[in-house]
Structure formats: C-alpha cells, structure tokens
Specification:
The protein is mainly beta. Helix content is about 0%, strand content about 50%. The strands form two sheets. Strands 2, 4, 5, 6, 9, 10 and 11 form a seven-stranded mixed sheet that branches. The radius of gyration is 13 Å and the shape is globular. The termini are far apart.
C-alpha cells in the first residue's frame, strides 16, 4: 500500500481552473496506476481520471474529457489533476487513489485512498 495526501482544492468560479496534487509515499508508486475520483453531496463516488503506471496512458470520464488532464511525476511520487473550464457540477470532494495491483493494465481498482480535498465551483 501507499499513503496518499491530496492538496490544491478550493473555491473557484465557473470557468476557472484548479490544479490538484497528490503526494504518495512508498516504493511501489512507479508500478501503480493512479487515479482521481470524486463524490458530490448525496451521490456515490465516481471515477474521474486514470493514468497508467508506464508511459502515461490516460483515461477520463466523459463528463470531464477535454477539460481535465491527469499526469504523474514518478521522480516526485506525485500525481496531478489539472481542471480547466470548471462547472458548478464539478463541485465535489476529490480523492486520489492508487491501484491495488502492480503493473495493472485494466481499469483501476483502488487499493489506497487519500483523505480527499474539497473543490467548490460557484456559478
């Protein structure tokens, strides 16, 4: 397992940008796919984006495709979520997640979660 700590959330207006960061501890980071999930009030947690453990292959939920960009820096044990053209419906707690399986090439199955960071987008 890895320990994850998110940062970068806040209150912004519609159309603004925000960059979330996730710092990971542990030697397994570079072998794990990483992802971002979010949970809005009264809703279930949902997938947002995933970046593979190698060569940075990315996958996005349709709702954020073209607006959000996930990336990772294995030298810094960090993963990022650049969020542009934010909408009020993006308001949620955003969670960083690490895959439970090393070198996985399938959909991310979270084995570790961060504590979450609040993103609020006002209209």
């Amino acid at each position: 397992q890895v320990q994850l700590v998110e940062s970068g959330g806040g209150l912004v207006q519609a159309g603004d940008s925000l960059r979330l960061s996730c710092a990971a501890s542990g030697r397994l980071f570079s072998s794990l796919a990483m992802g971002w999930f979010r949970q809005a009030p009264g809703k279930e947690r949902e997938f947002v984006a995933r970046v593979s453990w190698t060569v940075g292959v990315t996958t996005y939920a349709d709702s954020v495709k073209g607006r959000f960009t996930i990336s990772r820096d294995n030298a810094k044990n960090a993963v990022y979520l650049q969020m542009d053209s934010l909408k009020p419906e993006d308001t949620a707690i955003y969670y960083c997640a690490a895959d439970a399986v090393q070198y996985s090439t399938v959909a991310l199955q979270p084995g570790s979660w961060g504590q979450g960071t609040q993103v609020t987008v006002s209209s």
